[in-house]
Amino acid sequence: MMDMSMWIVLGTAIFLTTMILYRKRFRLRSLQRSTLPLGTLGWPFIGETIEFVSCAYSDRPETFMDKRCRIYGKVFKSHIFGSPTIVSTDAEVSKFVLQSDAKTFVPSYPKSLTELMGESSILLINGSLQRKIHGLIGAFFKSPHLKAQITKDMHKYVQESMETWEDDHPIYVQDEAKNIAFQVLVKALISLNPGEEMELLKKQFQEFISGLMSLPINIPGTQLYRSLKAKKKMANLVQNIIQARRKNGVSAASWVPKDVLDVLLNDSNEQLTDDLLADNMIDMMIPGEDSVPVLMTLAVKYLSDCPTALQQLTEENLELKKLKAQLGQPLRWSDYLSLPFTQTVITETLRMGNIIIGVMRKAMKDVEIKGYLIPKGWCFFAYFRSIHLDENHYDWPYKFDPWRWQDKDTSTTCNFTPFGGGQRLCPGLDLARLEASIFLHHLVTQFSWEAEEDTVVNFPTVRMKRRMPIWVKTKSRGDP
Ligand code: HEM
């Protein structure tokens, strides 16, 4: 009897367990079969990376996406940079992912990039520490005090640079813009002025940034090895500054932070380590060397190809210059940001230029959005470029047309995300616009120019192939 009941209990347990397991597998299979986006994972290991990269090097990187969108739809599966990936060219799906928190999606970038950034970089950390640092930096970058300082520094560095421009030599806009934007940002981050240390930093930074999209092999002779060495030298310089600040402390009650380092060092709630601070100061120099100068350079490129836009921009800026001269006032940061046409030129440059083509995340659990399944552990690539160049969102998307932005609010549409969105929306977006506005103001009010032929390179980062050479002519007073 005893034996019999034991067999019944055991049999029932086995039956129930089998049913549960079967149902679970069946549910997962049917979920995957019905909702995992269409697409192909390509070759073993390399997936579709080679095709992605070869398109990325062309002048139409989005052809990789366009081809697949036509076959599979706006959201498709692929395998790039070593991970199975869901690629999204659908603004709503991308918006949802960007707005999710770290329990659902975390940043995920190629290995060379994460090794160089360091694990405590704001671009890679998650949760409360990321929110904290993001909030502190964002608030500081928005402060009128910093904007006034940036405006003053930009004037100084732009003027110094433009004073050396001669009519009978080509000016390489990209180099000039990099030099100016890097100095301005380093000053805002750690209050370093031009001089020996700045030159050392600039030199090491070039080496550092070359490794961001290199092969992830760290042995002597490789780019990653050289870049990591350069980062160490820069970190030493920044750590010396940090230690000197910690030693001096804060003296007066009326003390105001003079740079981002001050803001982070003196946050009473969080004791941030020297390593974290140094890593982040260096990572935040990247937009100074890369994104912001590229924005300025591309604006010059597009304006050179569109004389009517250049004329309208010049008139707007000359008018402001004249008005300020009559009032005997210097130009303030708010003056620049209030120039409506100049702002539409910058917006259109951001849309067409796609300086950051998209952002990458990794799913921490199975996620379903708009009927698509993003499986746990898969990467998600929100590809902004396709959205910015989608003819369903923008008429004649490949035409530089600043007028399309007149009377439009860029902050409310999910079809325009050059600065990302959600929890990680770029905290430097106002600064980038301000720097570009000041650069353009000085350029168009002081010079006319002839641009040489040049083309945009899109990979691994956006830049001009020939560094955008132009031949300038100094304007005499009253020249349009
Ligand atoms: C044209 C110029 C710029 C462009 C196109 C740009 C674009 C972006 C994008 C798309 C992101 C989102 C990354 C993600 O979601 O993973 C981002 C984040 C960020 N940007 Fe910018 N950026 C620019 C200028 C700047 C400047 C001037 C700064 C100042 C230091 C800056 C600092 C940051 C920081 C700290 C983050 C990380 C925010 C976080 O993860 O919490 N950016 N940027």
From TrEMBL:
Protein family membership: Belongs to the cytochrome P450 family.
Name of the protein: 22alpha-hydroxysteroid 23-monooxygenase
Keyword field: Brassinosteroid biosynthesis, Heme, Iron, Lipid biosynthesis, Lipid metabolism, Membrane, Metal-binding, Monooxygenase, Oxidoreductase, Steroid biosynthesis, Transmembrane, Transmembrane helix
Enzymatic reactions: 3-epi-6-deoxocathasterone + reduced [NADPH--hemoprotein reductase] + O2 = 6-deoxotyphasterol + oxidized [NADPH--hemoprotein reductase] + H2O + H(+); (22S,24R)-22-hydroxy-5alpha-ergostan-3-one + reduced [NADPH--hemoprotein reductase] + O2 = 3-dehydro-6-deoxoteasterone + oxidized [NADPH--hemoprotein reductase] + H2O + H(+)
Main location: endoplasmic reticulum
Residues the record lists as binding heme: 426
Pfam families linked to this entry: p450
Cofactor section: heme
GO cellular component: endoplasmic reticulum membrane
Membrane topology designation: Single-pass membrane protein
Places the protein is found: Endoplasmic reticulum membrane
Transmembrane segments: 6-23
Biological or metabolic pathway of the protein: Steroid biosynthesis; Hormone biosynthesis; Plant hormone biosynthesis; brassinosteroid biosynthesis
